[in-house]
């Protein structure tokens, strides 16, 4: 038969309150108080022990379990990449991540990390802390404060506000003789002609045009890609003028760059497709490793027309990019949970006939939107076959500078 002590150590094994069997009043009261106190403390301790045990069983153990395999996965990827680098010092197919490596990489909770980073960077900074914190960031990432509209760091209430700083008028002149200008500051990752429905992410690593843009039903077309449609057929279906070709350009924005992006041409936006996607890093070193990186990440594809036909501009999200904001599209919500946006993509038609959705006309150089940290801009557009870029991979460019040399359509660019 269990003793009173053993019973007291079990949670809820006996009632918290019981009567004393003492024959007289005062000692009985004292004994009751002592018993109640002892029993209550024992039961509370036992209950806490049970809660801790449950917490360890349902929370801590699975967390350690995931951490263990997560660490093993990252270690395997690191060793694999180290061996590849020694065997294949130049870019080659052997350097591109395998499916299982990408799977391990995607286990990292980049979306949760990005939301936490967004929360942190939006915390209000006391005035005394702004100069040292923002000044350290500016020095680490080579931010040019002389170009900022407000160069006084004490006037920025948080780090996110400094990310989105505006520039002085005239520091980013728009090339008047160019039909296509750089939409943002950044580094050119790659550019060129779309070939057989494929685009180069970086040299030696390509990704699919169809996977990046999704089904091409911009204006009330079928909502599925025709069965059996090849990549080449998909590419041709985008062309308004079949005599033209498709071109693309990828620009990477580093954390120290100017984070607003502008319209690269005179065009009209009439469709937006939002892919919730992942938030993997788009650093050039990762872009060389993960094929189809931009097709995996969250992005907002804006489609419309310019003077030569099809034109699209896509801001691509990345790790620690708390949000992508487009000034003419207040409905866009990025970096949400998977439960909030469960579908692969979300479309919005900007039809002038609809009262709540209007086309967005944009002039060359007009501000379009902003990132909350560095990321990537992908341009895909139709142009005459003699269109040629005048930039180089790895080149640092500034918003407003020309992206091309003279071509047959440039003289009539503003007619």
Cα-based radius of gyration, to the nearest Å? 30 Å
- The proportion of residues forming helix, as a percent range, comes to 25-40%
Helix/strand/pairing category:
alpha+beta
Give the percentage of residues in beta strands. 15-25%
What can be said about the biggest beta sheet?
9 strands, antiparallel
Number of helical stretches of at least 4 residues: 10
Order of helices and strands: HHHHHHEEEHHEEEHHEEEEEEEE
> In one word, what is the shape?
globular
Q: Please, what is the average pLDDT?
A: 77
| Number of DSSP strand runs | 14
Distance between the termini: 100 Å
Provide the low-confidence segments as ranges. 4-30, 58-66, 84-94
């Amino acid at each position: 038969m269990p003793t009173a002590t053993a019973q007291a150590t079990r949670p809820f094994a006996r009632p918290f309150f019981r009567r004393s069997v003492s024959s007289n009043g005062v000692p009985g009261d004292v004994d009751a108080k002592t018993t109640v106190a002892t029993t209550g403390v024992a039961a509370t301790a036992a209950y806490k022990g049970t809660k801790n045990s449950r917490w360890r069983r349902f929370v801590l153990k699975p967390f350690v379990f995931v951490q263990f395999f997560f660490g093993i996965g990252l270690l395997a990827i690191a060793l694999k990449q180290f061996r590849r680098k020694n065997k294949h010092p130049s870019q080659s197919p052997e350097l591109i991540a395998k499916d299982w490596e990408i799977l391990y990489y995607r286990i990292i909770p980049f979306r949760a990390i990005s939301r936490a980073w967004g929360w942190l960077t939006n915390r209000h900074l006391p005035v005394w802390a702004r100069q040292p914190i923002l000044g350290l960031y500016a020095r680490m990432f080579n931010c040019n404060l002389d170009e900022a509209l407000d160069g006084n760091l004490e006037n920025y209430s948080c780090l996110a506000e400094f990310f989105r700083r505006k520039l002085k008028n005239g520091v980013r002149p728009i090339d008047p003789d160019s039909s296509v200008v750089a939409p943002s500051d950044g580094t050119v990752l790659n550019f060129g002609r779309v070939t057989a429905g494929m685009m180069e992410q970086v040299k030696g690593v390509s990704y699919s045009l169809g996977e990046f843009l999704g089904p091409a039903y911009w204006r009330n077309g079928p909502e599925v890609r025709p069965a059996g449609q090849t990549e080449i057929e998909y590419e041709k279906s985008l062309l308004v003028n079949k005599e033209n070709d498709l071109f693309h350009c990828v620009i990477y924005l580093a954390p120290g760059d100017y984070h607003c992006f502008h319209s690269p041409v005179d065009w009209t936006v009439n469709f937006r497709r939002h892919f919730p996607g992942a938030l993997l890093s788009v650093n050039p070193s990762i872009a060389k490793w993960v094929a189809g990186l931009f097709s995996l990440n969250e992005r907002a594809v804006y489609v419309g027309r310019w003077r030569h036909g099809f034109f699209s501009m896509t801001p691509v999200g990345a790790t620690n990019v708390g949000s992508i904001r487009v000034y003419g599209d207040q409905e866009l919500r990025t970096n949400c949970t998977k439960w909030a946006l469960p579908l692969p993509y979300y479309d919005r038609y900007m039809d002038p006939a609809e009262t709540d959705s209007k086309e967005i006309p944009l002039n060359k150089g007009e501000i379009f939107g902003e990132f909350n940290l560095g990321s990537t801009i992908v341009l895909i557009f139709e142009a005459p076959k003699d269109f040629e870029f005048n930039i180089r991979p790895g080149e640092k460019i500034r918003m407003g500078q020309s992206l091309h040399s003279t071509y047959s359509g440039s003289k009539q660019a503003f007619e």
